[in-house]
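agent> step 3/5: call structure_predict on target 'Group 1 glycosyl transferase' (Paraburkholderia hospita).
agent> reason: downstream docking stage needs a structural representation; sequence fetched in step 2, passing through unchanged.
tool.input:
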Amino acid sequence: MNGTAMRIALFTHSVNPRGGVVHTLELGRALHEAGQDVTIFAPSVGGAPMFRASPCRVVLAPVAAHGNDTVSMVRTRIDALKTALLEDGASGFDVLHAQDSISGNALAELREAGAIRGFVRTVHHLDTFDDPRLSEWQRRAFADADAVFCVSDAWTRKMRDEYGVTASVVNNGVDVMRFRSSGDPDACMKLGVIGKPVVLAVGGIEERKNTLQLLEAFALLRQTHPNAQLVIAGGASLLDHDAYTRRFIARAAQRGLRIGQGEPIVVTGPLDDAAIPALMRRADVVSMVSLREGFGLVTLEALAAGAPVVVSQIEPFTGYLDERVCCWAQPDDAASIADALRRALHGRGGIDFEHAVPELLARFSWHESARRHIALYADYAQHIMQPLGA
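tool.output (status=ok):
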């Protein structure tokens, strides 16, 4: 690109706070600060704004009414993104970059129709679907891309070994200053966060997040810490987790653990953006015992906030964390998670917040992520395709 700014379109599946959406917004900001011309496209229901302001131009794609099933929801969002890009002028961008399967399919369909020359795709993680249409959409979103990126070495290997796709690693980043600030000082009080200690999990109640196993571990923790409180924050997902949530509620009742403000378990649902840093700074330990993650950005955010973390001893976590910066747990073993929570609460788990944590956080900056993306974009634009109209 000879050093000139590229016109980059980043596509995400939602305006709500999820890891992939955060990645899109933060990458967009870093690319913008690096002098690139960035537009972010996102489906929006009822004109809902992006949950966090961006210095980039944001195009909200209106989502049409649809049925209550996931397939209909996905189809309408694919169509919304296609329409928005065509109306905005697809030929004006040097790079079209999908961050998920929904936007990946929008671009794949436009490419098939000859409306665009190609696109790149970041795979954060892949899910397992019972519906063959969802499975096929997930496959096509990376299979039809001209270049694939992954946010961890683990998923780069997985894409190569299981799908025959050669992917490039692009790191996540963390906004350290955001999580060192107090955020919304009243958030904890409003939510009834009063525990001594407070165990925080971010991402809602989901099977992938292993929330039921965390519940069992929390019940064991209460045997030695009777005033402990489990706070489950966030959970703005497009997928249907109702059945799993019902199992969680029923099991909590069996364990005699009430759910509500000021109760042993607080389930916040989606939160204002400023509430998450406040919760992390209030937490005595942050739990990230997922069964599957693309990267697990919450770990870095918690450490930036000064909170010790309990983390599943599986990939991708083992690729960038070690015992100096986290307390490991076996995610399929509630006793192991409970023991790790106790270690984290005793002397902050022995985590080296003076040296090892700052060194880790310095490795994962959005500035560095933007630099890596710009290099890959330039290579893509030069060797794989030229913008329409060139």
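agent> step 4/5: record observation. The chain has two domains: 7-173+365-383, 176-363.
agent> proceeding.
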